[in-house]
Amino acid sequence: MNNEKIKLRITESGQVIEVAVFSKRAEAIEVVIGEGIHNMKCTLTPTRNGLAYAGSIKGRELVYERSREKVRADIEMLNPHVRGARAR
Description:
Largest sheet: 6 strands, antiparallel, barrel
Number of domains: 1
Number of strands: 6
Mean pLDDT: 89
Order of helices and strands: EEEEEEH
Structural class: mainly beta
Shape: globular
Strand content: 35-45%
Radius of gyration: 14 Å
Distance between the termini: 34 Å
């Protein structure tokens, strides 16, 4: 089992935290913050300009400073058999 971890920045304080990735797609990244019974799940969605992913939990804004294209490239590098949606 490969537990991927990413670093998020809390915009309010500028603090950087490391969180576990639950699922990763170009449209959204789901992360798990905390451990054990005190964990919480947060969904990060791309910003309007596509240069970062943002989400909030308990009123705190979290930012993953990586563009949508870089995340898509990461996903394809980890699993090259997964392609985008096919046109019908």
